[in-house]
Amino acid sequence: MARSEEMSPAPPAQQAGPPATVPSPTHAPSGDDGGWGQLTPRVLAPAVGGLVLAAAVWAVGLPAEPQVFGAPLADLTIPVAILLGLAGLWLAGWTATTREPWRVVDIVTASVLGVAGGFLFVLWNLSWEVLKAPLAAFPPASGLGVGVWLVPGVLGALIIRKPGAAVYTELVAAVVSALVGNQWGFATVWYGLLEGLGPEVVFAILLYRRFGLGAAIGGGAGAGVVVGLLDTFLYYPEFSPTFKVAYIAATIVSGVVIAGIGSWALTKALARTGALASLASGRDARRV
Amino acid sequence: MSVLQLGAGDDVRDAPVARANPVAKLAVALLISVMLLLTVDVVTAGTALLLELAVLPWCGLSLRGLLRRGWVVLAGAIPAGLVTTWLGLDSGAVLVAVGPVTITEGSLLAGCAITLRILSVGLPGVVLLATTDPTDLADALAQVARLPHRFVLAALAAMRLFALIGSEWESLGVARRARGLGDDGALGRARTAVGQVLALLVLVIRRGTRLSMAMEARGFGLAGPRTWARQSRLRWSDAVVVAGGIVIVTVATAAGVLAGTWHLALA
Fold it and tell me: Is the same domain home to A261 and A186?
């Protein structure tokens, strides 16, 4: 196995779980210091650096010159600042993880979860067109349905518990949805990538140690923010700011309730059936 | 269900673009989507759409095949444009005013731009997805784009389960109907649907665990060099396809900038 040299006190493959020092993620974060024990300068540097850079860009603002195709560069100030801040935090989380390599069972389970998610997307893509009709009176409310499209990413992260699980699962689901064919075509793939990055950043900030209800809600909210911003950028760029804010609020609520709490409840129920026995989330559930 | 068809079908002819390496087609689709999503204007999106339609005869998709696979893009593009026309920010002369709804020159133009943009971004995707077999795509992603092969091949293996997942979903639905579930109002139907999703996930994860054991038993995921039964290589014709994509976005963006309508949509 590829990972053997990195896990020198190697337990046999079936038991290769998180090291014993990692606290059980279902425990309350207060009281145990293990989760944040690795907060070394090497970890803090990218986080602080990213936030400082972001604050600097925000405060100073990008120059109006040079112009990008006639648009002043200053228009990009806020997106660049957000991107820098998130990148720093994500890099910090990534550096701090123990980085256990993915096992084959992790990869294959994440893949089939993604394909199952893609199948459910195909059903939802069609039914949402019908279900959202009563919401036409208040168009921003259509954001309330996006949570279903965010489930695979959060669910993948909660079940697999590896860095990159959210992005990978959501991307596979989006690719399946695009391959089958839907009303958004290739843009689905971009959406899948970014909808996975939303929760991924949240789980990275939690150092891939917390996979309880709080982390799930955070992940769902992260995905909701991303999809709200994407939709207002791609589909509703000509709308009023009030509409955009209302829409993003709706996507966040949907992300928290459906993708966050929903995925957490699904993971609990799945663990109870024993289906997760060979995965990190299943081992943990047995102990409780 | 014809909706559930994955990959290239029998309505695709052999043609230069269809034959190109999937990674080259993917690069073109990514490039066009990024460059066109940056702006909302009629000129850029319209020029790109015209150029794409001009290249279509070399893509191997018949008009019927294009409509069969692309109608969903059309079904998404037209409502999005209409909604923008009705509700978008008003500017310019008022064309129609009915109660609170006003259609102005500005919002009409914005609606057209949104529709054209979705179509011009969607068309290369439709061609890519219609003319590419998932197996070829996976081979190209792992060998040409050098993505981690364990992930690419596991995703491909999982996609083979797609039809099976569909039939399992149907059996679960039938079983639930037989038990008399899902017949008590909207709330009851929603609860039944969630239960059915959970049951599907249990089946799928169990199958995935077994699949991974079977794959590992055949040596999948071992350290050491990997060999490939199907070779995927870039050819000169792939460079031509990529160059064509670059020409399309350059001409479209230049047209938008020259017409003065190009503006960054991020602000």
Answer: yes
